[in-house]
Amino acid sequence: MPEKAPKGKDSAVWGNKGYVYLAEEKAPKVSVEKLALQDVYFPLNSAELTLPAQKILNNNVKALKENPKVKVVLLGYASPEGLDNHNLKLSENRALAVKDYLVKNGIPKNSIFVKGEGKMEVNKSAYPSARKVHFKIISR
User: Fold this and answer.
1) CA nearest to 130, candidates 59, 48, 55, 45
2) CATH superfamily of this structure's domain 29-139
3) N or C: where does the chain have the smaller number of CB atoms within 10 Å of the terminal CB?
4) Which element (helix H / strand E) includes 88?
């Protein structure tokens, strides 16, 4: 089966031969005003990137490459368990882990800033959602 429908052939003729061709469309480029980067979540007391986190980061890398003028601050957070100084360091390490991943995947390090915010005050049921790095766009 040919990879592409030959030019000048109408689909009715080619459809009768049982061929199916997919349109070669690229996803529309997202305008910078509508650019949304997803947060990345971590396990308790960890700054290691999980596979789901890496998948999210791969999507964020793609969006950042499509918008090379964008600059971001990575805001690291921790859940309220533990001592304040430990949570501050953990939140910074989470943000640094995300920055390292982005840089290794082609995002210029001068377009990424990090800040550890320490613990995020949330209800106990929301502790897992506090263990994250949030992408804040600071320049478009």
Assistant:
1) 45
2) OmpA-like domain (3.30.1330.60)
3) N
4) helix 84-104
